Every structure is written in structure tokens, then in C-alpha cells.
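Predict the structure of Fructokinase.
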Amino acid sequence: MRKVIGIGETILDIIFRGEQPSVAVPGGSVFNGIISLGRVGAEVCFISETGNDRVGNTILRFMCENNVPTDCMSVFPDGKSPISLAFLGEDNDAEYLFYEKYPKQRLDIVFPKIYEDDIVIFGSFYALNPVLREKMLELLNMAREKKAIVYYDPNFRISHKDEAMRLAPTIIENLEYANIVRGSIDDFLYMYNLRDADKIYKDKIKFYCPTFLYTAGAGTISLRTSSISKEYLAKQVETVSTIGAGDNFNAGLIYG
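Done. Here is the predicted structure for Fructokinase.
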């Protein structure tokens, strides 16, 4: 059976409505998608790290409750599990503040076995962080060697906008490993100051990866490949929150 292997940060999201915290839930870009897949019974594996503290224990328990194994979680004795503050605005879009204190030794684990046609999903700053680059490349090379399907979601935050030029070579390397790239309107605005799907695909994606999905919130979903150029209308719904919207789009696409 095809397995979905994710690698990325785990974090405790404390969500604010107005000025008051309303709920605290484990999160993270790839993490959210893997949790959704675990809930629908897909075979999943998640590679990440967390602290040996109450926040870390909450994250590990949440994974078990949602059918996501914790075998590939590195629990570090030093440092602290990361948290984020997510402030919801009137339209339920979120602004984030992040707090983290990692140890010097990171991601001290043995990777799971990967087989042909398994799906490996990666992204966010976790996939760009120079401290983790050696481990990230180890996994991506395993995926390439075993002919797994590699799915890349840049999930590029505004907090890294000023670093976009410096991070460009690493982003390109990630694109070269990917079989599918799925990014949002915000990702490419912050990375390249571009909004047009055709220009993004032609100038920034096509040379490295043939398959591109571009989402624009409640707007159009654009699909670009070497032979297909299509737009799909998103169904209009009233959102409770947009936190994890793109992550769950990834999960739905992979599961479907």
C-alpha cells in the first residue's frame, strides 16, 4: 500500500480571536496535512522533532489520537518545543508570531524505508533551514533513488521575505527534487513578487518541475503541466478559520 511520508516542523499553535486566546492545538505546515490523512485512514509517517516537555507530550499524544505514528519523532532533551501565536482577523485570516528554542543537535533519527510510488511531502522554512539541510537532502535523495513521488509546498512566510534572494538557490534545489509543486498566491508573492500563474510556471517552475498547482485562497486553482493549462473554481464556503487551509488542500489532493 502506498505510504505518505511527511517531514516538517511541529509546533503548538495558540489561536487568538481578538486579544484573547481561544484554543491551543498542535500544528505545522506538513504536520497538518499528515494529520488529515491519518484521520481518513491513510498510511502515514511523519518525521520531525519536539522537546521533552509538556508541549512536546501534547503534540505526541495528538499524533497518536489521529493515527499518526510517532516512531520518526526526535524528542530532544535540551531546548523547548516551539509555539506560535496565531491572531485571527475579521476575515479569519491569521497572522503569526513564532517562538522557538532548539538544541544544537537536530533531527537525530533514522529515516523510514521508502518504496516506489510512496509520496514524500516537504516544505516551509523547514525545507530551507541550513541547519537541517543535510538531513533534508538525505531524505530527498532516498526518495529519488526509490522512485517515490515528491510533493513540495514552499509555504513561504512573509517573515522570510527579506531572505528570499539568499534562499533562492535552496528553493531551486527543492524544485529540482519535486515531481509536484503546490504553492499559494502568497508564497510566490513573497518569494518572487509575482502573482500571475503562467509567468510563475514559465519563469520559476517549469524548468525544474513539470507539474504545478497554484492556489489563491477562495479564488481560482490553476494547474500547469507540459501539456495542460486549466483553471478550477473554488467552492465558496464560510470559513471558521483559514489556518491550515493550504495544508489540507495538499492532503485532499494526495488522498484523492
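The mean pLDDT is 93.
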